Amino acid sequence: LQAAAPPGLPMVERLAVDGVTLGIAAGLTLGTAMLFGLLPALAASTFEPADALREGGRTAGPARRTGRLRDGLVIAQIALAIILLTGAGLVLRSFDHLLRVDPGVDVERILAGRVALPGARYPPQARAQFYDRLTEALAASAGVEAAAATSYLPVGGPGFGLGRVFLLEGQPEPPASTDHPGSWNVTTPGYFRTLGIPVMRGRAFTRDDTAESPPVMIINQTMARRVFGDGNPIGRKMRSWRDENLLREIIGVVEDVRYDGLADDEQSLAYVPHQQDAWGLMVVAVRTQGSPPALADTLRREVARLDRDVAVAGVATLSSMAADSIATQRFSAVLLTSFAVTAAMLAGLGVYGVMSYVVVQRTHELGVRLALGAKPRDLFALVVLRGLLLTALGAGLGLAGALALGPLLAGLLFGITPRDPVVLATVPLVLAGVALIACAVPGRRAARTEPLEALRS
What we know:
11 strands, 49% helix, alpha+beta, four-stranded antiparallel sheet
């Protein structure tokens, strides 16, 4: 559990198999054994000798009642296994969707680290110059294809997405109108090329977008659709009216990117050039030609060359950041799958135990059937069909329970609903296969019954 736990899971370091844990587990195990051992003992204490001596007494009175109880326990066990398997199947299907999702960026061969400039020594113009020089030096380094800096790295990377609200040029302020929310991201030129984010319309930032040039911005497709519909946003102007309150011309539209992890929903994003809004805390991203970790020393060396008092923190690959962003979903999938597989195995053992007992209990009857002309395959089918009947009843109850409890998992799912037809159709088939295997062994034993020995029992 500690190895599979996602980052930030509370108190994970305190997970341990200690005396208290073992004591509780042992107590529950012994209590369960005593409880379910007591039930047949009570049934045996009320058994009538006359019924036992009478022909066919094995199926009379209390025996029939205990038989119904055994069947009911197996049905309940299968139903619970179906519920767990359905939950695990939904989470696994959801996790598979997450692994296949398009993050909107090329996460391969990207190395990134946070750089914080002390505000006392770096006014806005000095910040802009520092990051311009740093990205230029990194881009010219051996093994580097491109480099850029940003205030907010996608797919769960470091940085800070500043939430702001925007108004179009000429649009009155609320409550006379409705503003448009979005995240504010500051980037240096070359950011979209470095991250592999396609520019769908217009252009990307260049070195000419400085503090002295007209204010500009780039928006993503979601913001373009929500604000302008089918219209062309290029050349239009917007302002972050509660903060900067400066009209900026939209010069480009870029593809959507999942910023807060692979499970992130679509959100509106506005990008502005770093020269026009110089931040001191930035994330430097480098696209490498080979292995990203090999360029970690290059990143640290170039930062130290510009300022020995500034360090790079949290150096990691973008692919590892993307993987960490779905660590919680991966952990949930591991836990639920472990519980579900265990439940399926227990359900199979339950079916096997009951059907084995039924074969022993009905040995005399099986001998009579054989003496009257029944074939061994008929006895095999008799046992297997009875086990599959119990499985079908349990599966029906389990699916009903899974449908009722499914909404509780909705918050863990991505790209599917709690009523996913693939999972709901597959899980009963899986458990039916387990039950079929569990019934096959006692079924073969029944098919091999010797009539004379059975009639003597």
